[in-house]
Design brief:
75% of the residues lie in helices and 0% in strands. By secondary structure, it is mostly helical.
Length: 178
């Protein structure tokens, strides 16, 4: 069809990639997204889509990181990209990249409750549950129906702090957290 007449239009490849992935033909969609990326367009959603396929379908977390980093560079105000990239860094246990991502994020991204929660999760993941609890106690999280994300991080932080207290012989403190 369209590509026969104009095979240099990255958008045609991108739209075909969207259509195919929406029809659960993600392998073919992935190929069209890669062809669109060959034109190096400054379009963050394309790289986010590629990142999702590498992450969820192909389990190639390093390649997914690369795609999300590109997306962040093209849309530095989109908190959702930071949330996803932080999660990929966490999967790859690269906490130094998580620190750098947070340090370099724009202020409006740092204030978004979804990203604030990722910061609390970072502290849980790195054995700093008290810092996680401080964040959770000092911020509001807007739950939507069925969402328990903030509660889950809160429970993990308390359990981790209780375990640490138990290991230190501070039984009363551990009991309070439990």
């Amino acid at each position: 069809g369209l590509l026969k007449y104009n095979d240099t239009d990255w958008k045609a490849y991108y739209y075909l990639g969207n259509l195919l992935t929406a029809k659960l033909r993600w392998e073919e969609g992935h190929e069209f997204f890669k062809k669109a990326a060959d034109f190096a367009p400054g379009f963050a959603v394309l790289y986010r889509n590629l990142g999702e396929i590498y992450w969820i379908k192909l389990k190639d977390h390093k390649k997914a990181e690369e795609m999300y980093k590109k997306a962040v560079s093209l849309s530095p105000e989109d908190y959702r990209l930071y949330v996803a990239l932080d999660e990929l860094y966490a999967i790859n246990k690269d906490h130094s990249k998580r620190i750098s991502l947070y340090d370099h994020a724009p202020q409006n991204v740092k204030k978004n409750f979804n990203y604030v929660l990722k910061r609390a999760q970072f502290y849980v993941d790195t054995g700093q549950p008290t810092k996680a609890l401080e964040i959770l106690k000092n911020h509001s999280f807007l739950p939507w129906e069925g969402w328990t994300g903030a509660r889950e991080v809160f429970v993990l932080a308390l359990l981790n702090r209780a375990l640490s207290s138990l290991n230190e012989g501070k039984y009363r403190k551990a009991l309070d957290d439990l």
